[in-house]
Amino acid sequence: MAKIFQVTARAGMTRVVEPVARGLLRAGVSPNAVTVAGTVGVLVGALGFGARGHLVAGALIVTCFALTDMLDGTMARMSGGSTRFGAFLDSSMDRVSDSAVFGAVAYWLATEVNHSGLAAALICLAVGGLVSYVKARAEGLGMTCDVGVAERTERLLIVGIGGLLTGLGVGPALEISLWLLAAVSIFTVGQRVAHVYRQAQLVGRE
Ligand SMILES: CCCCCCCC/C=C\CCCCCCCC(=O)OC[C@H](COP(=O)(O)O[C@@H]1[C@H](O)[C@H](OP(=O)(O)O)[C@@H](O)[C@H](O)[C@H]1O)OC(=O)CCCCCCC/C=C\CCCCCCCC
Ligand SMILES: Nc1ccn([C@@H]2O[C@H](COP(=O)(O)O)[C@@H](O)[C@H]2O)c(=O)n1
Ligand SMILES: [Mg+2]
Ligand SMILES: [Mg+2]
């Protein structure tokens, strides 16, 4: 289900992404520069706006810059192929962005003395990182781990919709979305561990 959503959404975005990618390449911009610039934009949106309680502005800025994550890979493929450093940089910068988003939300909820929301945000921060780590470790061991209901896009969308609604006046939306996300992130870790376990059983010892 999550995969179907990602494939469909990505196909829809391709029409917008490809001309922008072509224009940036023609202007001499490198895929790695886009990767770093996208991360800086997410940091500004999350820490500069979200953490201060400007949730609507924060969510919109983070969304715009998070979407550039589709641009860098497209540019790399158009300019003759992806690079190993680019793949490493892309994933590492994703972790920086995700930490900033959930750190900013946690900071704002702490200033609001919302202990329940803060606890949920910290669980999302830790477990979201674990979801990505499990995949990276599995891939490092030569296995696949491209499964789970709450991959990065879904995680950002859930917190984004919650943040947007709370920013628009629907008080508990962010807290509810964070508890939902905490639950589905824990479930995703289970799905990924089970997926790796099945492969490891087939392959045998390291
Ligand atoms: C303002 C919020 C309101 C909500 C409305 C938002 C509207 C958004 C508009 C459209 C949504 C479009 C969805 C985009 C669909 C993208 C489809 C896709 O293919 O995504 C997959 C792609 C994978 O890229 P990578 O291979 O580079 O990524 C790897 C992957 O991420 C792995 O994931 P994991 O293991 O963690 O599960 C990583 O391990 C690996 O490192 C990584 O390389 O993903 C993308 O291209 C990312 C697209 C991001 C789309 C972001 C949408 C953002 C929406 C809301 C964000 C709001 C945040 C709110 C902050 C609140 C602050 C107060
Ligand atoms: N600076 C970069 C960024 C990404 N890549 C390659 O693209 C893959 C990710 O594709 P997205 O469309 O999701 O960004 C990544 O794994 C790399 O292979 C790159 O080469 N340089
Ligand atoms: Mg990318
Ligand atoms: Mg990425």
UniProtKB/TrEMBL annotation:
* Pathway(s): Phospholipid metabolism; phosphatidylinositol phosphate biosynthesis; Lipid metabolism
Work out whether the entry's keyword set contains Zinc: no
**Gene3D superfamilies in the cross-refs:** 1.20.120.1760
Q: Quick one: which residues bind a CDP-1,2-diacyl-sn-glycerol?
A: N32, A33, V34, T35, G73, R77, T83
Q: Which positions in this protein are listed as binding Mg(2+) 2?
A: D69, D90, D94
Binding-site residues, Mg(2+) 1:
D69, D72, D90
**Similarity field:** Belongs to the CDP-alcohol phosphatidyltransferase class-I family.
The name this protein carries in UniProt is: Phosphatidylinositol phosphate synthase
State the species of origin.
Micromonospora wenchangensis
